[in-house]
Structures are given as structure tokens and as C-alpha cells.
Design goal:
The chain is α/β, with parallel strands linked by helices. It folds into two domains: 159 residues, Nucleotidyltransferase, domain 5 (2-Layer Sandwich); 198 residues, ATPase, nucleotide binding domain (Nucleotidyltransferase, domain 5, 2-Layer Sandwich), CATH 3.30.420.40. It has 15 helices and eleven strands. The chain is globular and about 65 Å long. The termini are far apart. The structure holds 5'-O-[(R)-(carboxyoxy)(hydroxy)phosphoryl]adenosine and zinc ion (ZN). Zinc ion binds next to helix 6.
């Protein structure tokens, strides 16, 4: 506790004398750990304040997270100034918790890695200014992190995966397919042209008022849809998968969302209930939207695999598809993807659910990857800014569309 209080004082008062006192207050543990690189990772790009300390072998020495989901569920979506305020209130405590759990003193860190793009401007700003204050006091290198790069590389912390591999990132804020050729070498094959699948599922869950459902009240929209879908019949509704004629790897979810909105309105009329009450057909709608989402994601991913195989972009002996992001924790969608990888002789890998959603570990690990590769390690943070919008890698989605690969129909019996 004493250490935590001292840490708190130094973070809020950046003076040279204080940082020296602070460093002396830590007990050092000379030994094996001193031979390893150690990175503190900080994540505040959306609605989770997270931090972790990871060593170069992938050991997670300490982690802490504060999720804002409950607050945002109540307001029906993320209100950026509210998210910013919650990050401000929690960031110091979360970093302290991660550091003290790791038993690593700040002076032992090799670097601090922090998400600076893409994300909500107000949220990114909190993590960045806190981190800059920290690295300037500690005189440590700073490693700016691209949130999507971190999601993509997480699998290399849990599994032995060599470059190149294909990655599908599906969450509340993003949706993309990319070929990962190196730590910071990505080819973007396709992305959502409108909203992300998690965002669509969140909107549908909100429109179905699943927060009032006794079994779903504390779940994110996507999780609530997955939960309720198990009790429903997907065949009661026939939603067409989006973009069936576009032979590329892009995605779209807002059209599907509007179709579902109309169906819900129609059902409310039929059942004679007000908006805000739970439809008797809510589980069937959840099952059908989950199925259509899974088929759409599976089809675009199937085409991406075929494109990469056609151009010999994946490892011939072991082609790997990595799926990550919050929506990747959906087991129904994973099964749909398994059908695709079985049909194309690929290996499907997903990080454990805890590492699929936003966390500090993936940011710290991305820092380790960059340290090892000697990429993007800043000793001077002058002029560093956060970037709310930032594409990932080189966009070759037009070329993918021009290849117009026809995807064989698969039996999506899930
Ligand atoms: O990666 P994440 O924590 O945050 C970002 O968006 O970056 O993902 C959160 C999203 C939310 O939209 C949530 O509804 C969705 O992931 N999600 C799920 C499931 N669990 C979380 N979607 C479908 N099925 C789930 N089991
Ligand atoms: Zn994310």
C-alpha cells in the first residue's frame, strides 16, 4: 500500500527529485527477470482502461482492467466525454495495480507502450497524456501502438505462429481482414464499409431491449445475442447475407441492421407491444441475426483465404487464419469460420476470450514485438499525437475485388 501511495504521488507531480525518491522506494529483485525485456502496456482507446506488464518471453507479470461496459449499457451506448472522465478517474489506479501485481518497479521497465490510434479521440488522449508524463519522468522509451496491430499480434503471445498469417478482426469498433507479413507489415484485404459487426449486434440488442431480459442484463449486446440465440430458431426469419454480389472481401452490416429494425417494428405491431418491451420472438430474431452475421463473415473470409492461396501469400505447409476482437468470442461465428478453414485446409486460431477483447496485455506484447524488431521505439516524444482514424497497413482491397474470386458454396450447418 505504501508503494502504491508513493507511486500515486509521483504520477501526479512530475519533478526530478520526486521520481528519484519514488525509484528508491521500490524493492529491486535482481535475478532472472533482469535479463528480460519488460514492457508496461496501456490501453484507453475505447471503453476499457487497461494496463499490463509483459516480459519478452510472453509472461504476463501483472495486469489490471477497468471496464466501463456497465455504465455505457445504462446510457445505451458510449458517450465519449463520459468514457474520457472514467478513464481519467481510473488510469492511475489501473497502472499502479498492474505494476504492483507484476512486482516490477517502473525503473526496471524497458519501455512503455500505449495505444495512440485508432479510437475515440477523448479516450486515446487520456492514455497518451498519462503515458507521456510517465515516460518523461522515468526517462524510458515510448512505443506508440496501433490498436488493430495489437489485436492481430496477440496470437503470437499464446501460440507459436510465424509470419505470414491471415487475420480477421471483428469487434464493436472494427472489422477487417488483413495479411500479417511482419510486426508492422500488413496488407489490408477488406474492411467494413459502414459499421462493425459488434456495433450492429449492440444496436439490435438495444432495439430488442435485451438489457431488460433477466438473463442478459449485464451482458454486452453481442454476448446477449449469442446467449439468447441458443433458445431461438434461426429458420423463423430469413435475413439475406449482405453484399452477395460484390466479389471482394469488404463487409457491410448497417443494411442488415435496418432490415432487422423493420422486422422488430412489424413484430411489435403484430404482438401488440410497445417499443421497449421484450418480443416473444426475440430469441428467434437473435438466432437469425447471429446466423446471417456468421455467414457473411465466413464468406468474406473464405474469399480472403482463396485470394491469398491464389497469390501464394500464405505459408504453403501451414496456412493460418487468426480471428480476434470482441466478436471473435462468439462460438457460433467461430464454428462458421471452422467450416471455412476445414474446407480450405487452414488452421484456425483464436486467442482466449479474455485476450480477444480489449486489454492491456496485447498492448504490452505489441511493445515487446516492436522492441525485438527494433521498430517504432521513441526516445523523444516531442510532437507525438493520437490519431482517432488510422488505416492498418497497405490497402489492397481494390486488387482483391478485381480478382473477383468466386467462393464455392459451403454447407453452413452449425
Ligand atoms: O474488442 P472489443 O472489446 O472492443 C472493441 O470494439 O474494440 O469488442 C466489443 C464488442 C461489442 O460490440 C460486443 O457486443 C461484442 O464485442 N461482443 C460479442 C460477444 N462478446 C462481445 N459479439 C458477439 N458475441 C459475443 N459473445
Ligand atoms: Zn479492440
Amino acid at each position: 500500500m505504501l508503494i502504491l501511495n508513493k507511486t500515486a504521488r509521483v504520477f501526479s507531480t512530475p519533478s526530478k527529485r520526486k521520481i528519484c525518491e519514488f525509484l528508491r522506494s521500490f524493492h529491486f529483485h535482481p535475478g532472472k527477470r533482469l535479463f528480460h525485456k519488460l514492457v508496461l502496456g496501456i490501453e484507453t482507446s475505447c471503453d476499457d482502461t487497461a494496463a499490463a506488464v509483459v516480459d519478452e518471453t510472453g509472461n504476463v507479470l501483472g495486469e489490471a482492467i477497468h471496464s466501463q461496459t456497465e455504465v455505457h449499457l445504462k446510457t445505451g451506448g458510449i458517450i465519449p466525454p463520459v468514457a474520457q472522465q472514467l478513464h481519467r478517474e481510473n488510469i492511475q489506479r489501473i497502472v499502479q495495480e498492474a505494476l504492483s501485481a507484476s512486482k516490477v518497479s517502473p525503473s526496471e521497465l524497458s519501455a512503455v507502450a500505449t495505444t495512440i490510434k485508432p479510437g475515440l479521440a477523448l479516450s486515446l488522449g487520456v492514455g497518451l497524456s498519462f503515458s507521456l508524463q510517465l515516460v518523461n519522468q522515468l526517462k524510458k522509451p515510448f512505443i506508440p501502438i496501433h490498436h488493430m496491430e495489437a489485436h492481430a499480434l496477440t496470437i503470437r503471445l499464446t501460440n507459436k505462429v510465424e509470419f505470414p498469417f491471415l487475420v480477421l478482426l471483428i469487434s464493436g469498433g472494427h472489422c477487417l481482414l488483413a495479411l500479417v507479413r511482419g510486426v508492422s507489415d500488413f496488407l489490408l484485404l477488406g474492411k467494413s464499409l459502414d459499421i462493425a459487426p459488434g456495433d450492429m449486434l449492440d444496436k439490435v440488442a438495444r432495439r430488442l431491449s435485451l438489457i431488460k431480459h433477466p438473463e442478459c442484463s449485464t451482458m454486452s449486446g453481442g454476448k446477449a445475442i449469442e446467449h439468447l440465440a441458443k433458445q431461438g430458431n434461426k429458420l423463423h426469419f430469413d435475413f439475406k447475407p449482405p453484399m452477395q454480389r460484390a466479389k471482394n472481401c469488404d463487409f457491410s452490416f448497417s443494411g442488415l441492421q435496418h432490415v432487422i429494425d423493420r422486422i422488430i417494428m412489424q413484430k411489435e405491431k403484430e404482438e401488440g407491444i410497445e417499443k421497449g418491451q421484450i418480443l416473444s420472438s426475440a430469441a428467434d430474431i437473435a438466432a437469425a441475426v447471429q446466423h446471417t452475421t456468421a455467414c457473411h463473415i465466413a464468406k468474406r473470409t473464405h474469399r480472403a483465404i482463396l485470394f491469398c492461396k491464389q497469390r501464394d501469400l500464405l505459408c504453403q505447409s501451414n496456412a493460418v487464419l487468426v480471428v480476434s476482437g470482441g466478436v471473435a468470442s462468439n462460438l457460433y461465428i467461430r464454428k462458421a469460420l471452422e467450416i471455412v478453414t476445414n474446407a480450405t485446409q487452414c488452421t484456425l486460431l483464436c486467442p482466449p476470450p479474455k485476450l480477444c477483447t480489449d486489454n492491456g496485455i496485447m498492448i504490452a506484447w505489441n511493445g515487446i514485438e516492436r522492441l525485438r524488431a527494433g521498430l517504432g521505439i521513441l526516445h523523444d516524444t516531442e510532437g507525438i499525437r493520437y490519431e482517432p482514424k488510422c488505416p492498418l497497413g497497405v490497402d489492397i482491397s481494390k486488387e482483391v475485388g478485381e480478382a473477383a474470386i468466386k467462393v464455392p458454396r459451403l454447407n453452413m450447418k452449425i
